[in-house]
Amino acid sequence: MTTRQLLELRPRIRPELRISRPLRRGTAVVHLLRDPVSGKRLEIGAKEHFLITRLDGTRSLAELGESYAQQFRARLGEAQWQQLLGLLYGRGLLADAPAPAAEPPAPPVRSTVLNGRAKLVADAPALLDRLHAATGFARTRWFLVPLLALVAALLSSVAAHLGELWRNTDQLFHQPVALLAVGCLLWLGLALHELAHGLVGRAYGGRITEIGLRWRLPMTYLYCEVADVQFFTRRREQLATAGAGALANLVFLLPFYPAWSLLPPHAQARPFLGGLLLLGTVLAFANLLPLPPLDGYQALGYALDCLQLATESRRFAGLAARAAVRRGPGLSGYPTRLRLAYGGYALLCAALAAAALAALAPLARRLLPADWAPVAGWAPLLAATAAAALWAAGLLLRNYRKRQTT
Fold first, then answer.
1. Do the Cβ atoms of 250 and 151 come closer than 8 Å?
2. CA–CA gap between residue 232 and residue 34 (Å, rounded)
3. Which residues of 61-92 are buried (b: 16+ CB within 10 A; e: fewer)?
4. How far is CA 86 from the centre of its chain?
5. pTM as predicted
6. Can you give the pLDDT at residue 256?
């Protein structure tokens, strides 16, 4: 094929391919590309995205080359066009390419007594399809607006009666059986939390890959995996998927507030209901903290269009620390927006860690017996030491596994 014949070609990518908005991974701008047939995902740069999204069968390669030269001030030669088309054809992304082979299933995750997972639903997509069809009324405006108004009223009432709810919760901690019942109800609320993620993600075009039980002792909880959220068209759809779980937690509490408010002050069930309301509200908002793997962290990543926000912020903080002593490559590759995003997130994590350590000593004094009061003052230092030891042990284990693999 001559160069002229090559440039006259009008290739077309398969229309069902899904391509994300521009995302940030460190200083690089990337796009995610997914083949729904094979299930394979690629990460492409801005230049590749410029070309791939214009391969629609109406433009010749010569026309695309002119547009590319105007955009990036560089021209593509014959070898570069052949390399790009060969790559797209080999991966089955062009319309006239052979059908791509399905990606082999991932090997099962090894579970132990302390940490693992178990699949509970044989066909999770079919289950969510049925629930999606049955709950269509809940996605209409006439249902959502009153529901959000009720949730806002609940939060206002909890804030107005915070002192009384705190006293009820304190009484609840002296009633082991009632406390266990509250824990079971909150666990049920977390199950609804995960289903809410799945239903909202399914409504916006996400894929439900698995529903199961995960344990990291002493915690055990249900999970619902929603894939392809990065490919949603609008950012608000991603944020709605991330925030649906916390909203479901608060909706779960709605029937308990009238029961609590109608009881007389000295009713036996009042500590149970008051503790449930306060602990459930705290649990809902705790899920919105911007810490991995919580929902707030996912939502912040979607809002900033950043992949692996925690990892990149940690790398930015390391570069900033070295730049402060005039070592390393510096921060010249980071524009102002990224410096604010990564630097601000690193400072936020440091502030949250400091607040948690500061609250640990009074919490330990509150929960521990009086004989242990002198030890409570050492709780922040002991917690920081334990966290550092676990981090070091994890780092050594990863390095050991890497050496074993190589």
1. yes
2. 12
3. beebbeebeeeeeeebeeeebeebbeebeeeb
4. 35
5. 0.87
6. 96
